[in-house]
Amino acid sequence: MESLADSKVWADYNAAQATRSVRPLCLEAMALAGPGTGRGAIDLGCGAGKETLALLNGGWQVHAVDSLPDTRERLLGIAPDADGRLSIEVRAFQDLRGLPEADLIFAGYSLPFIHPDKFGGFWALMLNALRRPAMVAVNLFGDRDSWADVPEWNFHTEAEARQLFDGLAILKFEVYDADGQSFRGPKHWHIFDVIARKP
Ligand SMILES: C[S@@+](CC[C@H](N)C(=O)[O-])C[C@H]1O[C@@H](n2cnc3c(N)ncnc32)[C@H](O)[C@@H]1O
Q1: pLDDT digits (tens, 9 = 90+) for 140-185
Q2: Which of 9, 47, 186, 194 is the most exposed place for a label (fewest CB within 10 A)?
């Protein structure tokens, strides 16, 4: 269960996202997936809704998931004319019992915030939602990240992260391992940007 403190952190984070551009990882996955018209995408941890909007603009039918209580209002505020192509689920990932079938799943900086005890079950559910063929694009956190001592979040060695995509073709696996800034101050980032295709 997400705490109120987490909700406040994410609300502040998402409010600061208004001026950034669409995540390049999402754009790359969209380009690899091909035209969205008539096809389904899921945005996991949609936050400010930037990638949800980009997917809608690309013609996709989008299922947007986030645990923040005001997610529906936020998304309808930026995408009032989605023509029935937007469904919104306000729920924590670990509480999902299913997801609609999808041709593309994007999860931008959101899956690391699942409790490690719940991550495996969620990951299986997510991969199960992918059609054949389908594309998945996610950011995962590595074991050298300075947040890796937070027991409620999940981190992976590079080998573990690669193993998560067993049975899928990895199209991109980029490692970012450098000091930088976060919304909580300076930190070391260890991030895996991954795009994979379910055959
Ligand atoms: C760092 S923000 C990323 C938002 C957006 N995807 C982006 O790339 O900017 C993480 C988002 O995931 C959501 N989130 C975090 N943990 C979650 C969980 N366990 N279940 C559902 N949503 C969660 C937060 O509410 C927040 O909107």
Answers
A1: 999 999 999 999 999 999 999 999 999 999 999 999 999 999 887 8
A2: 186
> Looking at ligand 1, which atom is closest to the CA of residue 107?
6
Residues near ligand 1 (Cβ within 6 A)? 2, 10, 13-14, 17, 23, 45-47, 66-68, 92-94, 108-110, 113-114
Decide the pairing of beta strands 102-107 and 86-90.
unpaired
Distance CA 103, CA 106 (A): 10
Other CB atoms within 10 Å distance of the CB of residue 93:
25
Alpha helices in 58-193, H assignment, sequence order: 71-78, 116-129, 158-163
Closest by CA position to 113, among listed 138, 134, 88: 138
Which pTM does this prediction carry? 0.96
Q: Atom 13 of ligand 1 has which residue's CA nearest to it?
A: 45
Question: DSSP labels for 4-38?
Answer: HHHHHHHHHHHHTTTTSPPPHHHHHHHHHH---TT
**Helix 50-57 and helix 24-33: axis angle, to 10°?**
30
State in Å: Cα 93 to ligand 1 middle: 10
